[in-house]
Write a structure and sequence with these properties.
alpha/beta; Archaeosine Trna-guanine Transglycosylase, Chain: A, domain 4; 5-stranded parallel sheet; about 40% helix
Length: about 800
């Protein structure tokens, strides 16, 4: 049965008026309205009405107002005009019925309209299993689509199910699908019946899936809306129930309790005012909303911070000194600074907390000193590690609008401290970095500035918090990586490395008792004797601090416990024995427990050999002996530098070489060696980067030694920067460098004359065992190294 009537015969050509359509497509067996194109379109419509009321509708390729033959597709549809309606604006609305698709054979242009000779498309029924299967797939998909989309009328469904031809099925169903213009056009133009069915099957399945997804989304949205309405209804009922029961404080959001806490805070009026406004906002929200959770967390942070809660400082200076001396050996500068602060604090209550920066090698007690300072002052103690921190938000926090936002580490630690005047340790401040997330060092500028930290503003709280009563202590191994503006805000106190004698005292008074307790030997008369401790310090550690020393002592005591248990003597039994137990661990036992010595004296440092000089260097872990080797070989006078050197050290070596060349005649060096040989300067341990100017005098000495073929004085270490005019300039890190020479047994040390005043920092037991030599010009230094006189330009006798 055909819903729209019988098809005309497809064997006859027809000459019909042509209407070009844009964005409108009429399929056979369907009724469709459209506005006739003005001009030629209206004229063609009038001619069609005067003839058989048939017109050839063809889609345009382009959107041209006056399309030509090239702008039209050749496939169109023969349509019957059902109705026309002329509107007041001159346009004509047309209702047509598509009859059959046809192919344009000729394009016949008339004076004011266009005609076309068309041939109906031959679409014979392809009765084969593929076609039947495709039709079944389309009809099955249509049933699923109909269940999801009820916009298709029963009459249209009936016509589709009664379609007796595959093309008829496509023509009836295609206009009902929500297809793009390109896909609809492709279905219309396709002449192969099987291809049309395949494209239709895909299209209807896609439409079914989209309709199913849309229904799921609508169902979920509806469910959420219903849940929200249900919660609102129940909350309103709960409020009314509380009122009826006389419980006027029904408070599902907790706003009332938070308001009471805010009002009880001893905080600035600005903070209280903002917090009370947030409490009022919270009270108006439903407890289940995300914004209520954000506000509640924010107000809890406000109320949990210690606003104006302070501990009283310990005013007993003697007690404070005893605590500092008990916990740490030496460190006179920092101890004196803390006691000075306590003394002034007694007469000036509003004294701002100092900002101290402890700089020194690892293992010298910088971090643990912070806790001792807190004990001495009677304050709470908090610590955060800044090593590897790259994000500014770690310091200042995130804006509270971010999901999971929290205050920065500064305010988190203040909450943990519970008071507004703790001792706050910022550990490893030199290990911070910066990237696209910001520069945490810049964020610390406000924290560590006494003029600004009284109103420190965290991004999360958005209100000022007073940090002026906090005693900040920072630690670092080096100042080089700390930005200069940050250095200027801190009072730098150097914590130098320890001498062997100081290490011995620390081991006896601090490390050994600690390790005895940790290894279960407390209460027993067990100890490592002094000579054994010296062996550990000399042969099994090589450091400025005492961390490795503590580990080695712990290892000796662990092996002692194991030895006692293997002998059947348990420490608990020994404590209860009638006879007192005593054990002294000797040097022999230490070597047995620790094995072969890890560190040995470098004999090459004392070997008199031309071209070898012992320099002294400063590193983040303390001083270090830095040998310099010079080798000459036939060549063109080139200078080769190796040893992983930085730019400053390379420049220092070139300056030394230029100085030696300039004064070669005065110093009686062979001009043939200078011009006819290549020169190789090497700094051993090439895997370790080296930089700095203080090796200048060492390079000069090694060069002169190599050119003269004469070794330097044995057992000498040296340091100093040289200039092209032969001056020896002062350098830094004198104490660490001298201690390094002392550890390696180099008892003669050369220093620039301007560094003579730095000897006061060197421990007396080291000074008494070493000999120091000073000079301000290179010739005086060389005179000491080679035990002879070197002539300077000022002393040279000019020829008459």
């Amino acid at each position: 049965m055909n819903l729209l009537g019988k098809r005309p015969s497809k064997n006859l050509k027809k000459d019909l008026p042509l209407l070009a359509l844009r964005e409108v497509m009429v399929f056979p067996q369907t009724v469709a309205p459209f506005f006739a194109p003005r001009g030629a379109g209206v004229k063609a419509l009038e001619i069609a009405l005067s003839e058989k009321q048939e017109v050839f509708l063809v889609p345009q390729k382009s959107k041209a107002e006056n399309p030509q033959e090239s702008d039209l597709y050749t496939t169109g549809v023969v349509a019957y005009i059902l109705q026309t309606l002329k509107l007041p604006d001159g346009s004509v609305r047309v209702l047509v019925e598509g009859r059959e698709r046809a192919k344009m054979q000729k394009y016949l242009s008339r004076q004011d309209y266009v005609r076309a000779e068309v041939q109906p498309l031959e679409t014979p029924l392809e009765v084969n299993p593929a076609t039947v299967s495709l039709m079944q797939i389309v009809l099955t998909s249509l049933k699923e689509f109909k269940e999801l989309n009820n916009k298709i009328s029963k009459e249209k469904l009936q016509a589709i199910y009664e379609a007796d031809r595959p093309d008829t099925l496509v023509d009836l169903l295609a206009p009902l699908l929500n297809l793009t213009e390109e896909k609809r056009l492709a279905l219309f133009l396709e002449e192969n019946t099987t291809a049309r069915l395949e494209n239709l099957a895909v299209a209807i399945q896609v439409e079914s899936e989209l309709a199913s997804l849309q229904q799921d989304i609508q169902r979920k949205v509806k469910g959420r809306l219903e849940q929200s309405q249900r919660e609102y209804f129940l909350n309103e009922q709960l409020k009314e129930i509380h009122k009826e029961l006389g419980h006027e404080d029904g408070d599902p959001t907790g706003a009332t309790e938070l308001r009471q806490k805010v009002e009880a805070l001893n905080c600035p009026s600005e903070v209280k005012e903002k917090s009370l406004k947030e409490c009022s906002r919270l009270a108006r929200l439903q407890a289940s909303t995300p914004e209520a959770g954000i506000l509640r967390t924010y107000l809890e942070w406000i109320t949990d911070l210690p606003w104006g809660k302070k501990t009283d400082d310990n005013k007993n200076l003697k007690e404070a000194r005893d605590i500092l001396d008990t916990d740490h050996f030496d460190m006179k500068k920092i101890k004196e600074r803390i006691l000075d602060y306590l003394a002034v604090r007694q007469i000036q209550a509003k004294l701002k907390g100092p900002i101290l920066c402890l700089v020194g090698p690892p293992g010298t007690g910088k971090t643990s000193l912070g806790r001792s300072i807190a004990r001495a002052l009677g304050r709470s103690f908090v610590r955060i590690s800044l090593g590897g921190v790259r994000d500014e938000a770690e310091i200042r926090g995130h804006r509270k609008t971010y999901v999971g936002a929290l205050p920065g580490k500064i305010l988190q630690s203040m909450k943990r401290a519970g008071t507004s005047n703790p001792v706050f340790l910022l550990d490893e401040i030199d290990k911070m970095a910066s990237d696209y997330r910001g520069d945490p060092a810049s964020a610390l500028l406000e924290v560590l500035d006494p003029e600004q930290n009284a109103s420190f503003t965290d991004h999360y709280l958005e209100v000022p918090y007073d940090l002026s009563d906090v005693l900040f202590v920072t630690t670092a191994n080096s100042l080089h990586t700390i930005p200069r503006p940050l250095q200027d805000r801190m009072e730098v106190i150097e914590v130098p490395g320890y001498t062997d004698l100081e290490k011995l005292k620390i081991a006896e008074g601090f490390l050994q008792p600690k390790e005895l307790k940790e290894n279960g030997l407390e209460g027993l008369d067990v100890s490592i004797d002094s000579e054994a401790l010296k062996v550990i310090i000399r042969d099994y550690t090589a450091e400025s601090g005492v961390r490795a020393l503590e580990r080695q002592i712990g290892q000796v005591l662990r092996k002692t416990v194991r030895s006692l248990l293997e002998e059947g003597r348990e420490p608990q039994t020994l404590r209860q024995a009638s006879e007192p137990f005593q054990l002294r661990i000797t040097s022999e036992k230490v070597r047995e427990y620790l094995g072969l010595p890890v560190w040995k004296d470098d004999k090459l440092l004392f070997e008199p050999r031309p071209g070898l000089a012992n320099g002294l260097a400063w590193t983040e872990v303390g001083g270090k002996v830095l040998p310099v080797e010079v080798s000459l070989f036939p060549g063109k006078g080139e200078l080769i530098l190796t040893g992983s050197l930085g730019d400053v050290m390379k420049e220092s070596a070139r300056i030394a070489f230029s100085l030696v060349k300039a004064r070669s005649q005065l110093w009686k060096l062979s001009s043939q060696d200078l011009g006819g040989r290549d020169l190789h300067i090497h700094f051993p341990e090439g895997a370790i980067p080296k930089d700095g100017p203080s090796a200048g005098i060492t390079v000069v000495a090694a060069l002169v030694s190599a050119f003269r073929g004469q070794p330097l004085r044995s057992g000498v270490a040296m340091t100093g920067e040289v200039t092209l005019t032969g001056r020896v300039l002062p350098i830094g890190g004198v104490k660490e460098k001298v201690l390094a020479a002392y550890r390696h047994g180099l008892k003669d040390v050369f220093l620039p004359e301007d560094n003579r005043r730095d000897l006061e920092e060197i421990p007396e037991e080291v000074r008494t065992e070493m000999t120091f030599h000073f000079a301000s010009v290179v010739e005086a230094a060389l005179g000491f190294f080679f035990s002879e006189t070197f002539v300077s330009p000022d002393q040279a006798v000019l020829p008459a």
